[in-house]
Every structure is written in C-alpha cells, then in structure tokens.
Amino acid sequence: RQQRNHQQQQQHQQQQQQSNGGGRWKGNAGGGRFRNGGGGRGPKNEREQGPMGNGGEENLRQVEPVTSAPERKERRPNGYQRQRARQEKLEANIISKCSQREKLIRELDSCRVECLVCCELVRPTQSVWSCLNCYHILHLNCTTKWANSSRSDDGWRCPACQNVSKEIPRDYYCFCGKQKNPQYNRSDVAHSCGELCGREDLCEHPCTLLCHPGPCPPCQAMVQRSCGCGRTKKPLQCSQKDDIACEAICAKPLNCEIHTCQQKCHVGDCAECGETLEHECHCGKQKKQVTCTVSNLDNTRFSCEAVCDAQLSCNKHACTKVCHAGPCGECVLSPSLVTSCPCGKQAIVKGERESCLDPIPICKAVCGKQLPCGSPGARHVCSAKCHLDECPPCNKTTMVKCRCGHMDQQIKCKQLQTRADDARCKKRCTRMRSCAKHKCNQECCIDYDHICTKTCSQALTCGRHRCDKPCHRGSCSTCHRVSFDELTCECGAAVIFPPVPCGTSKPPCNKPCSRQHPCSHPVLHNCHAEPNCPPCVVLTTQHCYGKHEQRKTIPCYQGSFSCGLACAKPLPCGRHTCIKPCHENGCQSNAAEPEVCRQSCTKTRTTCAHQCKAPCHEGDCPPDLPCREMVEVTCECGNRKQMRTCHDFSNEYRRITSAQLASSMQEMQRGGSVELSDILGTGKPKSNKTLECNDECRTLERNRRLAIGLQIRNPDLSSKLQPNYSEFLRTYAKKDPALIKMIHDRLSELVKLAKESKHQKSRSFSFPVMNREKRHVVHDMCSMFGIDSVAYDAEPNRNVVATADRFKSWLPSMSLLEVIQRENGQRRVIVPNLNAWGRTANSSSSVAK
C-alpha cells in the first residue's frame, strides 16, 4: 500500500510539472524566500540556485525537460488502474445482459444519456421527450425544433427510429404520462413521477413498476387459459402466448351441425365437414353426391327434369309430368272422370265405359267450344263436329286492337297468336326506363313507370364486386360484404380487426417500409400498400453507358445514363466505330441482322478520288456502283458553273472525249496528225470543263478582246445592271466594311441554301444581337436579296431573323463593297481566259483559210 501511494504522489508531481512548462528554471532574483536563495516564483522542488548566489540577477532560461518515466520505459498499470479496468469490464458485462429499460435507468442515473439532435448530455433537471416506439430520450426543445423543421403532411419522423408522429410535443410529461412537469427527486429515476406506471401496452393488466423509461416488462399476472376444445384449463402468465392443446379429440360440431370434428385438440376454427350425402330424385331415376351441409340435410330430394313416367292408379298409363314431388294423381281417361262426349253435349251411358282403355263415344253435333279468337264479347266457336283432338284453326277474321292502341285492324284468326283482347303490336317503346340509363324497347308497351328490370352490374367502390340490385339512378351503395379476417399493413405493424368492410384500404403505417429493396441506401418512405416502392432518389456516382465519364449526381433508381458523346465502340465489321450517342444495349439497331454494319464505306474509289459511301462491305468496292458525290463543272471560259454528281460528270466527260476522238480520227483519215494523249487524258487529271458556253460567255469573251484591243484598264465586262444600294448603306459601308462583308456573305449563303434545298421551301438565319443602327443595315441588305427580315425580342437582346424563299430570293450582281470600289475607281482586274482566246483565234484563222 505504501508503495502504491508513493507511485501516485510521483505521478501527481509529474502532471503538475508538465502543466507548468515541462522544464526546470535556473536563476535567482534575490530577496526570495526559497531554500537555496534563488529568486522567482515557481513550484516547490523546481528551483535551483543560480551562479550569482542569492543576490545576483540572471535572465531566466529554459533547459531541457526532465525525461519522465513512461518515456524511458513503458509504465505498468498499478493496482488501482487494474481494479478500475476490472470494474468497467464487469459493468459492461452486466449492461449487455440488461433490458432496454434497465439500460436507460442506469444511463439516467449516471447522466450518460445523449440527445440525438444536439449531441449534448440530458440533465436530470431538463425537460425531455421520450419516443413511444424506440423509447429514445431527447431534449424537449430539440424535439420541438426537429419536428417543426422536418414536418410534412404525414407528420414528423423520430430522429432515431423514423417513426411518424402526428402531433408535435409541446409539454413535458413523465414517462407514464400522468404528471406534467415532474419535479426532480434524487430517490427516483430522473424525469419520472415516482408513482406506479399503470400503462396497458399489450394486455388488460396495468404495469406494476414505478414510472420508468423504456418499454414495460412482460406481464407477470397469472390467468387461466383453456385448450382448443375447452376441456383442459391451465394457469399461465399473461405474457405467454403459447397455445394449449390436450391429447383428446376435439369433438366440436362441424358446420353441418351433425358430425363432429375428429382431429386432436387444436386452436382455431374446425375444418368444414368432409362427409358426403347421397340424394335421390323424386322419380328415383337419378342420384347425386353432395357435401354434408345444413341445407343439404333439409332437402334430400331433387327434380331431375325428366318425365316422371310412373304408373298411374289405373296401372295402364304412365305419368307425363316432369319429375315431381308427391303422388302422380288419377288417370285422366278414367271412367269416373270422363262422363260425356268431348264436346260435352251427350252424356255417356253408365256402364258403356268400364276401363280407361275403352273408347270415348263421339256425337254428331257441332263441337261449339270457344276458340281463343274473336272479340272479347263474341268469341268464335269451333264449327267442326265433335272430336277428341284439339279444335282445328278458325277460318274467320278478328278485329284486333292492341293494348297500346297503335294497331286496330282485321286479322285472320289463323295468324292470331294470342287472344284478341291481348294482341301485341310490333311497335317498340322509346321511353327511358326508371334508371334513366336504358330505353324500354318493349313491344306494345303499356307501362307507366317503365321500371328497369335489368341488374345494375356496376363496379362497387370496393373494386372487387358488382352491384346486384336492379338498375337504379345515382351512385351505387357501398359493398355490403365484410371480411372476418384481420387486415394488416405490409409489415404487419398496423392492424384493422374484423369485421372489415369490403374495399377497406390497408391501414396506414408509420413504420419504415420493410420490403426488400434493390439498393442498400436507407429507406426514406413509410410502409405502403402499393405494389411497387417509390424509386430511390439518393444521388450516386455512376459511369455512363459507354464508360466515357463519371457523374456524382445520378439518382440511384436511374442506374446509368447517357453522356451525349459518341459511343465510339468498335462495330463487328472491324472498320467502323459506333456513331450513335452514348447508349445502352448493343450498337446495332437491326434485330434481324445484328452483325451487319450500316455505315458508309470510307475507302477511296479506283475510278475517282471520292469515298465509296456504299453500305459497309467486305473486299473491294463495287465498280458498277455510281458515285453520288457532288462536283462543280464549268464551261471552257469559267463563266457558267453547275453542281453535278460525279457519276453524271464522268459520263459527260466520256461522251465529250468520245466525240473528240471521233473528230480526231476523221482528221487522221484526211492525213493530219493528232496528239492522242490530249484526247485520252493520259498523264493529266480529268478536266471538269464539260459545260457548253452560251451567249453570255460569248459576250464576255468579246468584251475581253475589245478591252485588250482598246487598252482599257480594269474593264467592267459584265452586262448585268448595277444594284441600286441606298445612300444609308453606302455611308455605313465606308464606316464599317467588315460588317457589310459579313452580312453579304451570310445572306449569299442563305440564298444558295434556299435554292439548293429540295424539300424545304425556305431557309432562315438568325443574326446575333445588334443595336438599332446595325439592325437597320441588316433590313436594308435583306431587301437587296429579296429576303424577308423580322426583328425579335426586346432591347437590349433584340436580333434579326432573315428568311430566304426558294422562289423569291436572288443574288445581286454586285456586292455593296464592289459598287463602292467601282465608284472610287478601284476596279478589280479580270484576267482574260487565254485558252479561250487562243482557241477562238485559231478557229477564226482556220475559217479564214
């Protein structure tokens, strides 16, 4: 013990030394009351006498700190530290075996409960709030602020368990909720009232503990529980939910109320009776097996819908009725029933008929039976002689008036299907029935209310059944069917106990959704009845489909994305890469031929210098495929220009070459010499001068020769009229010629695009934002090209949009800058075409010859 105390004192001295500077101070200041005469103030045993004695002065200086024991050698824990470690380990062992209630009580007693909102310790004198779901303890003020900041239409979530609550806590209550603003008492648990808890969480018995945090312990009250059949009773704790079953037979009456359950004692309803009964029809011809139910026990016979065919009392005739219950009755031909002839005018002499097989005598009088035809007051009678069979058809006519009054005419009695006073016409009623949904459509209708006899059959609000009432006005009533099963939410936390009306939605649950989700992010939505969960919107880091770039703002449910760059994946052909924007799945869109590349071939043709541009193929490019590349062809003098396909140009060139070759052959036949290399084009590129010169070309050629002959400098060889530009444009062109040139080039390109367009009637170009003066220049320049111009937007973002029509726009013969140069005498020198000049001179000399 003395050694342990000595070590503790040394440790305390070292801590004080480190807190005061960690070194020893040397020097004396004189006049100090120290043991060695040194000056200055400092801790005891930390001063040393300076070299000047007790009267000298010396500057204080810090020397190297004394090396502590832990730096020299690792200090072994003393007995106190080992005992402290054992106590902490024992306490951690005890806490791990404690319930949540006991842990909360320990933490409250030691002030170790931490608020999850402010991360501060919860003091015994502070107002708190406890979650009724997870029992976490938070500051009341922090909880109120948290609820106000995170509240939504459904409520606010607990920061610990995400349980949704409707009301925001405002008042401070004890854990059991009995006392408001409880006073702190050292003998009780902090924030408790000190009274019995009394909460009834899971059963009807109140909690017997003092007011406490956390959940109540399982109920320890003893109750009598019966087995499934009710014969055995056993005392159990209320919290025990074990089912009790004895070894006896259940013997409860089944649904038929005759047989009993033969299973062993069980909990819950017994199964339906599985016995079968044999029912026989009334005539005894058929039998059927039915399940044992109360209704089947009451009705043991049925009608087979066949003819009875049972022997009558005469034992000579059979019953002609449909299978029926009860006796068949007496034979209709019995002598006791037949006492006269068929018409009833002559009685049968007693003893004339002794059996039902004896013939019935017939008299010679007229039958005279009333027929169904004729007017109600004067029915027609049968005019045939007395007979046994039915009366023949009547040959007279009857005045018939239908019941609705639409038909009133004479009809042959043979055509009458009903009585004359009950005749029906074919007119259909067009009035609406009582439901206001269907028309009557009844023939010869005499109804006043027109009651609808159809079944409603509209879907009820439950969405499962249809209305079985007669068709009616207005909305159908709610479904009357109920279920006697518990209706729970998806996770089973919220329950609606039976009876449950049909169509009742699943109860709302404030618990987080417990379904399996495809991602591992925290669930932010409640338990729901919808088949699919809301998509996860947590931002994640994902690569695009083609792995070109990575973004950190992609919602989790989206997975990947398209970056918009070209896919650039190699295609199966091995010569091209995918040019589609970044996409998923395969690069080939043709499902029938996924391995076929649809891009254009980039090989150079052997016949021309253009690319093949045929669909991607193997081997050499097909020589017979015409080249569709556009080339510019001119005339010999270069005045005419035109765009043609390379294929047409090659055909035209071959035609011209063939014509030249033919003329050269004729020259050779006359004895002249011809240079074939000039005709066949060997050793020089193919010429694009395949157009013929027109009158304008000849006029330009004549003007060139005249200008050379007259020695005119910078001649204007064109015969076109000079465009009349406004004075405003001329002045502005001198001030800003670069803008004028830009506008002229843009409008020229726009007109060319409009003229070359095959499918669009017009083309448009949007100029950048300009001020008022520059927009004026654009409008005036557009008028010189036949282009429509409109200004859009407000200042200072107003700009001009020019639209060139394919048929209404044109190119001016001279630009504005060329006109100004000509006016100033700065004309561009146009070099004459020497080839054309020489050719013309040669031809003229040959003509002269």
TrEMBL record:
Pfam families attached to this UniProt entry: R3H, zf-NF-X1
Write down the SMART domains for this protein, in alphabetical order: R3H, ZnF_NFX
Report biased composition (Low complexity) as residue ranges: 1-18
Region Disordered: list its residue ranges: 1-87
Q: Biased-composition ranges for Gly residues?
A: 20-42
Where the record annotates domain RING-type, the positions are: 115-162
Please give the biological process terms from Gene Ontology that the record holds.
negative regulation of transcription by RNA polymerase II
Domain R3H residue range list: 741-806
* InterPro entries on file: NFX1_fam, R3H_dom, R3H_dom_sf, R3H_NF-X1, Znf_NFX1, Znf_RING
Q: Where in the cell is it found?
A: Nucleus
Note the superkingdom of the native organism.
Eukaryota
Print the keywords alphabetically: Metal-binding, Nucleus, Repeat, Transcription, Transcription regulation, Zinc, Zinc-finger
Gene Ontology cellular component terms for the protein in this record: nucleus
Gene Ontology molecular function: any one: RNA polymerase II transcription regulatory region sequence-specific DNA binding
The family classification in the record reads:
Belongs to the NFX1 family.
Its recorded name reads: Protein shuttle craft
